[in-house]
Amino acid sequence: MSGKIAAFHDFEPIQDDFRTAVLNGLSSPQKSIPSKFFYDEKGSGLFDRICHLEEYYPTRTELGILQKYGKEIAHFTGERTHLIEFGSGSSTKIQTLLDAINKPLSYIPMDISKEHLLEAAKNLAARFPEIPVIAICADYTSDFQFPALVPGKRTGFFPGSTIGNFAPKEAADFLKQTRQLLNGGNLLIGVDLVKDHNVLFQAYNDQEGVTAQFNLNILARCNAELSANFVIDNFEHHAPYNETQNRIEMHLVSKTDQIVSVGGNTFSFKAGESIHTENSYKYTIEGFQKLASDAGYKSSKAWIDEQSLFSVHFLSSSEEPS
Ligand SMILES: C[S@@+](CC[C@H](N)C(=O)[O-])C[C@H]1O[C@@H](n2cnc3c(N)ncnc32)[C@H](O)[C@@H]1O
After folding, report:
1. Which of 166, 257, 267 has the alpha carbon at shortest distance from 219?
2. Is 134 part of a structural domain of the chain?
3. In this predicted structure, what is the pLDDT of residue 153?
4. Is 152 strand, coil or helix?
5. Does any ligand 1 atom lie closer than 6 A to the CB of residue 17?
6. Domain presence at residue 110
7. Nearest to residue 249, comparing CAs of 102, 60, 93, 32?
8. Is residue 69 part of a domain?
9. What ligand 1 atom has the least distance to the C-alpha of 36?
């Protein structure tokens, strides 16, 4: 299903960003690659497959909360608002809100993964032809010129517990930035909760190995875009729960001593040494509300599912829109 989007703004990070991040990350004592680089076209497709896995409870649980409380959430957002989604992926969850909210002024999906964003935006425009869809390809942590919008309040939507990919201090800084971009508007945000470690472990270590493919794909992307020569089979997916930090960590562990070249630079790996590719922090309700308050938001409401797996928070900004 393909519809017509009202506008597309392209601030796709230049390839040099990826090269610099990989070269810097692989030069650190704990090698690392930032998780935002998971999301090329293949990575976004693999993430969609993860969302349908039995073990991966966050997607269906968050969607269940949005479906169950959609009308109440719409009461909080009010009518005639621009809806700006950070890291919109396939724009699936927003559809529940667009069904519930009265006359949104526009839907603005923002994502780093260009092809995937455009396809999702066109599908959404076909399903909601009366709502202007303004797609923005950008790294939401970067400085970019947010387009002018017709006057009206702005409501942010940040589902998928993507906030958990930031360390808590960075998460508070990012939330502060959203307050500026939302011009004093409110933010609806999905946050994964601290829970039984085994449930968390299974969610990132699925039987079918889709999360492993997703993690390893970042090496294939280095090979394709940075003239690297990673032998993918020489690395394996490792995703333990770090209890002290309340976070799942994703790593790619070298199975052997090896030397890898990335665009003419060489990096040596000892067997067992890892590249740290992602953190996914888990919060308690109170812990996340404290973080939101540090960022200047007021927690107006938190909805959780019956098993207390996942939470959706409505954060209000006290400032008047300028
Ligand atoms: C965990 S997925 C969540 C997708 C979707 N919102 C959901 O709830 O299922 C994270 C999404 O954020 C996007 N993303 C990650 N880092 C980003 C960044 N720095 N700037 C823009 N988009 C980013 C990814 O491309 C991906 O679509």
Report:
1. 267
2. yes
3. 96
4. coil
5. no
6. yes
7. 32
8. yes
9. 16
